[in-house]
Write a structure and sequence with these properties.
Blueprint (H helix, E strand, L loop, with lengths): L3 E3 H8 L3 H9 L6 E3 L2 E5 L3 H14 L3 H27 L12
Antiparallel strand pairs: 1-3, 2-3
Pfam family, one: MerR_2
Protein name: MerR HTH family regulatory protein
Amino acid sequence: MNERISIEEIIRLYKIDYSFLNQLIDSELLHPETENSIQYIIYEELPHLERFANWHYDLDVNLPGIEIIHQLLNQLEELKNENRRLLHNMPKFENWEDAEF
């Protein structure tokens, strides 16, 4: 079982609006678990929640903006991983003139 924290506790600790948290859940940026009619967020998602809350409250970014920024950062991470994979699999040449293209 993953470690988790209840939505009520998140609202109290992070001092965020319930409606904002619900918007994040409705847009599938957060994925709560429900047990005995209590919703929980797993600890692994807390860094995302903190980032979204910072963007929203500190930078005044609305939900569509948060969704776009999140998607672009995910794409950037995927491109970095693909670049690392390609560089790792690329043959090593002593001299680029020896390479066959």
